[in-house]
Structures
1.
Amino acid sequence: MKRLLVGIIVSFIFAQDLKITSNKFFYNSKKLYSEFIGDVNATKGKSNILSDKLYVYFNKAKKPVKIIAIGKVKFYFVFDNNSTYKGHCNKMEYYLKNGNIILIGDAFVKKLETNESIQGSYIQLNRFTKDIKVKGSNKPVNIIIKVNE
Amino acid sequence: MVRVVLFFVFILFIAVYPLLEVKNFKGNNCFKKENIIPTILRNGNFYVYNQNLIKEGNFSVLNVYNNKKLSGVDFKLKDLEKNFTLKSKFVKYLSPILKGREVKYYTKDYYLVAKSATYNEKSEVLSGKIFDLYSDSFFGKGKSFKIDKLNNIFANKIYYILKVDK
């Protein structure tokens, strides 16, 4: 009962923080990173990342600076009321400070409000500015933009 | 003839006597194995844990004998801890594995609380089942864990909450 109460209180305090569940976990106390393996599910508010592996890197002040998701990455990001993105890629790098989200390998992003989508081997999305940069490799970059007729 | 035989027996006895005497002397002063004191614990501290595993005991000196008997000075362990403590000491003596309940493990980065855990003194690995993990930046709960001597954590079925700036 005590633990449940503590759990509820902690959940409330961390309400808008990143919650991660996985089958296996490894924390490297020297290199300061956490590794999650198997059925990884990371949730923050309405945003969500699913992947095979996920790494959280900390700085010396023990604050998270970078999140890397690897393998069958699927995501759903809600940045604000008008910016909801859904997509997938092979690898995702999320830099918490500058808000850069880099999608690598067979990357696809769709903005749900406008139905616009982008496909490429490298997509860089910024959480704050909403800027998107795309690079293709062997395959051409696909950009679908809705045009009002 | 009888006198001659007795004389030779007497001479033989004198020659052999010192050997018998030495043997007896050695035997009388040999320590019995079970009486050797293998462990002396002081002040009720688990100092072998490097203060990572904390348990309370109220003895100033505790002797643990090979025959599993205890003798001590001010030997007053808490009732709740008594079984744990005595058991742990014996286990420690017989094998490098120590068992504990309500274990708290502190490091610079985090601290972990588990209902029960085992600590292997040789490999310096602490392992156990259901646990809570606390740190400045994260909180976690899991079904089982292992902490190696470098304080790295290996865990299964974890639920982890990370503090991130909005």
2.
Amino acid sequence: MTRPPQDHGLLQARDLVKSYGRETGLVRAVDGVDLDVAAGETVAVMGPSGCGKSTLLHLLGGLDRPTRGEVLLSGRRVDRLGEKALARMRRDAIGFVFQSFHLMDEPEGPGAGLLLEGIVLRLQADLRWLEACERAWTGRKE
Amino acid sequence: MQQEVLLAMLAKEPSHGYELRARLRQALGPLGEAMNAGQIYVTLTRLEKAGMVASEQAAGLPDRPDRKVYALTPEGQQRVAGWLADMTWAGPAPAEFHLKLVAAAAARLADPLTIVDAQRREILRRLRDAQRAALDEPDHSTAGLLLEGLVLRLQADLHWLEACERHWAGRP
């Protein structure tokens, strides 16, 4: 990979914001994050459940688009890439290991927690797809 | 073919069966290849019997098997409105596969890990096919959007199979 301009890092985020909902229902999952990660550097993001860690990682990995701000990979704007370019980037340049669930207490029988995990994973995937649909149908009639 | 889908497509304008088929193929892309015309006509016939659509013979094409033009009735319009408001979401639980593993392990029919492995190979194959098909679609294609949904689902299922593998590896 080419060295990014001004040597700020391989992966950069600038004033990254991701919000859901509107008006009184507005939730800012990620609110103004700046980040510089150099090649070879290891970064840990810590925080309680629901504080926006996964949303931040989804934005950095090109799995989701920010409401505001920039994500740069090797100096290239990722948040503005089209769906195909994003798909190629995810295939070629980004590795993503999803968090696993630990629903191992199973009061409801063998593997009931495991089945719930499958449901959660599918619904999360479907939510991401609904967002893609929202983007695709914005300003479009057919 | 699901009745409500055809009804909702007829909401745009009265159509021949073959026009509906062409619109469906356009929207589904490679995922619509398995769909045959017969399914559409069978569904349209049922809808007509149920009073959801009315048909008229189209003039000038006496030899065509699909010479009827179908239009929505008020009952059909009502059904479409109900369908649009219905928030049912298909298939969020991979319950059948889960029960296959549970039953296979309980009766010692097969090693759950072998089944998981075979299933993973199948899902990876489908994922590759879907990703290839998605890259072949032009930008902003509705069929491409559907393929994106399929890819996301398959990726979620792959992650779940990893969880299945961990689970069943821990209990012989």
3.
Amino acid sequence: MMFVAGIAGVLVGLACAVYRASAGPTPFDRLLAANAIGTSSILLLALFGFVTGRPEFLDIGITYALLNMIAVLAVLKFFRYGALGHVQDPEQDRDPE
Amino acid sequence: MEVLLDLLSWIALALGGFFYAVGGIGIVRMPDVFTRMHAASVSETLGTGLLVLGMVLQAGFTLVAAKLLIIFFMLMIVAPVSSHALARAALHEGRLPLLVNAKNWLVETDPVSLFPELETRLRQPLSSEQVAGETDPQEGTLPARPTGGYAYALEGDGAPSDDGEAPR
């Protein structure tokens, strides 16, 4: 089975990404590693479904891909603005109170 | 024909696993955020593409192959967007890329010193801030006040301790 070779390669990449996520000096290293972990988890799901003969795991992979995109953009917005909501002008903030 | 397809998919799966492992090793060993992004893009393009190609060749013309291609295109959309946003956030926070200088040493280099036209782009606010500032013109026809308030808000953002009342 050649799927096992693909799974081995993806597991090596996953282990390296986990190391970088735990030891990365800057938050951007950790975020890059988190993105890599998400991608490799999607590929692991697909390959594992092929190994076990149940390709229905691909639906979970599609969901993980969508979640991965939203998570990365949300965390980057948090780094930039310090908040996840809409950034308002201070003058507009003062009006209702 | 079956044997040929099997052979091609096995080659693609083995090469995909190899490139994925290479990208992972690059993520560990590279010295910098930007070079680590370069290493991660290897596993995100070549590794993912070859692994998905191998699985599609095994699946044939079925719904499974269509789902695999959907996943592949989704990853191909996500990877450039997330790496662009990551590099831009790192540059805006002040991280400098490691570049080779004249003595062949790796030093932290300000990219503005190499490409002066980057000055106007990097020092400008991001477009979402401009959108937040441009919500004013609908309530009035004063062109001077929104731009003045906008520049004032930017200065307050850069040096928050100047006027203690402005940020909150």
4.
Amino acid sequence: MTAKVGVILFPGSNCEQDAMEAVRHLGGDAELLWHGDDTVAGVDAVIVPGGFAHGDYLRPGAIARFSPVMQAVAKFAADGGPVVGICNGFQVLTEAGLLPGALQKNRGLKFLCTTVELRVESTSSVLTSEARIGDVLRVPINHFEGNFTCSDETLDTLRVEDRIVLRYVDNPNGSVDDIAGICNEARNVVGLMPHPERACNPLLGSEDGAVLVRSLLSAARTNV
Amino acid sequence: MRFSVLVEVRLRPGIADPQGTTIERSLPHLGFDGISAVSVGKAIRFTCEADDESAARAEVEDLCKRFLTNPVIEDAAITMEKA
């Protein structure tokens, strides 16, 4: 059975089509979920895509976390459903309390639009299960507020529980401990600043993100 | 009663402040030698209707905690006076 991935559309999202295209390109089914609907019924995984949800007013994700759909996402995640937040989606998930920490303005205050190398640090998550530890993936980044920060206690917990799933090979934004992506305790919610959905087709310069999207599709299939 | 409220959102101590650092680094070039400890935050002003000052303060504190600040990196200083 084909896994169906729901991609949430907030006013100001701008990567939802890329995410749906990547899912379909890799054999999954994709559908848009409107932020104002209080349900994610009928999907096997959820992507919170990149962009500027609600204009990023106040703080990225600060208003989006109160969108009706986020209650449903929290319930879906609590029931074990796979949820991935990419870029602005990562910011939304931290604001919603589904992932720890916060994303601050980049060190150096530059908007970064480039391709970076990511090292896979843990394969025990819905986004990395089909990769291998130590794999280096070339994936684009496109953000101003991607500087992951958290308390020392939270950082210790993330390390001890093997919840840092991706690290930058060459830290572009000042993130603590070179963190590019983390997962929750149950390992079914992952947030990352880079955009794997934009690296799933050789026409786009890299297919290295495909292994991540394929991992999500595989988690979604077991959740069908 | 109506209160004018000023909420200053600040980065918590120990959280890197790239905007403050950038401003501070530029000061010597501009001839400002005696200025240090620059930090950048946000000022949010609004009015609050409540029975009395302590009720207003409780409401504003709740607002700050749940919405106006991200407690992981920010805290808030609240100033209020009768409108």
